[in-house]
Amino acid sequence: MGPFAVIFLAGIYSTLAIEAPRKELNDGNMMPVVALGTGRGTAQGVDIEEVRHAVFWAIEAGYRHIDTAAIYNDELQVGQGIADAVSQGLVKREDLFVTTKLWNDKHRREQVVPELRESLKKLGLSYVDLYLIHFPIATKVDGSPDDVDYLETWKGMEDAKELGLAKSIGVSNFNATQIDRLIANSKVKPAVNQVEVNPTLTQEPLVSHCQKLGVAVMAYSPFGFLVTRKRDDVPPPRYDDPALVKIGEKYGKTTGQVVLRYLVDRGLIPIPKSANKERIAQNINLFDFKLTEEEIATISAFNKNIRVIDPKSWKDYPNYPFERD
Ligand SMILES: NC(=O)c1ccc[n+]([C@@H]2O[C@H](COP(=O)([O-])OP(=O)(O)OC[C@H]3O[C@@H](n4cnc5c(N)ncnc54)[C@H](OP(=O)(O)O)[C@@H]3O)[C@@H](O)[C@H]2O)c1
Question: Which of 51, 171, 219, 240 could lock 77 by a disulfide, CB 3.0 to 4.6 Å apart?
Fold first, then answer.
């Protein structure tokens, strides 16, 4: 094959599949720095069956990291999308990094491993790459508060790692005090804290705290209020914000890509959710440009400390991690 053919094929390949670099976690495992989000909570109208296609399209586009959770009720469809991709020879299981999460009503130590086995059964996998405690809050099955300390839950997570059912373990929605308390009282340090980060919730103090401790930060709801949310009180920026559009024009990228790259440039692992084939491909096409310090500061200046995920109905529960008012 001549050099032109190689360049031509490389060109086609690069438009077809773009793999994100991997980041080493504090336990030595390697995590791809962009994950496909599959939770459909506050995002508009996604049919559960679309998750199977979204996962397949994502793997086809080069994603190697998929984020799900027991509470999303889509682990079956995530597993089907993965199985489709594996059976068509796009990837092997070991090329993928699959994250799932333990829900609040299964926080007792003896519940953790059986609950992970349930998730694995639905996913059709023998292990996950990362298992997270979804929230530090414990509830009963009826949603009322329960008195299980997350230190107890973490012992169950350590059991899961010990058994090889989860290669890495971590937490989600933990604040800095909770992370410190967990690290001070546990054998295994959490590899990850998955929290909301976007232009209107930039979370500099929590992010730098985690990063100093060697805890990688995954950024959920990465588009913040750039995209439609089911509420009225939405702060700027919108998708057509002039400052973001200008940065995008400089690099030939969309506003969405600028915001995702902003998160990558801060050392975060964004989890964009999309069920649309083109947007799925767009959201991983982030590795041929880099923002300047000034552009990062411009985007950080949108911060308003306003959350997309703001579960105020839990504000009086023990271990509520966010601001109460
Ligand atoms: N740990 C936790 O507590 C927690 C909480 C919330 C979320 N998460 C995780 O994070 C993921 C993402 O969060 P999220 O779903 O709240 O928000 P998101 O990814 O910030 O936004 C999703 C919305 O953006 C749209 N979108 C995607 N790509 C776009 C693009 N390039 N341009 C314009 N619009 C675009 C999607 O529509 P289309 O589908 O039509 O493209 C969807 O409506 C979840 O799926 C879940 O995996 C975790």
Answer: 51
